[in-house]
Write a structure and sequence with these properties.
The longest helix has 13 residues. This protein has a single domain, classed as Nuclear Transport Factor 2, Chain: A (Roll), CATH 3.10.450.50. The chain is built from three helices and six strands. With 123 residues, it is of the alpha+beta class. A six-stranded mixed β-sheet has the order 2-1-6-5-4-3, covered by helices on one side.
Length: 123
């Protein structure tokens, strides 16, 4: 997120931690940024409910061995809500080409300062 607008208040500490973990490829730490009853939705996939389900999803992805990067282009935040504009790139594996997807995620932070909702949109 270097050089990009950062969330303006203390409620956004978990968002900053989440995006930093994504940038490092540390999905275990990323999962810990979500509240116990958080929701996580990727485009064209069934949503996940709860930190445990999110952590299991991230763990399966890590176990797949796919090389990937997550780059944040901009964060627009207002209190407990934010929009994260990003690019996700993954190796195709088995001779498949790299795939890049641009999108944004609408994020809601709960009263405890944890990520309560992450909802992605492609675009």
């Amino acid at each position: 997120m270097r050089g990009k607008r950062r969330p303006p208040d203390a409620n956004a500490d978990s968002l900053t931690a989440l995006l930093d973990a994504f940038a490092r490829g540390d999905l275990s730490t990323a999962a810990g940024c979500f509240s116990a009853d958080a929701t996580y939705r990727e485009p064209s996939r069934t949503g996940l409910a709860g930190r445990e389900a999110i952590a299991a999803h991230f763990a399966r992805f890590v176990a797949s061995g796919v090389a990937w990067t997550f780059t944040v282009d901009e964060v627009i935040a207002n209190g407990a809500r934010a929009c994260v504009v990003y690019r996700f790139t993954a190796s195709g594996g088995d001779g498949e080409p790299r795939r890049e997807r641009a999108g944004c995620a609408v994020v809601r932070i709960d009263e405890r300062g944890e990520i309560a909702e992450w909802r992605e949109y492609e675009g």
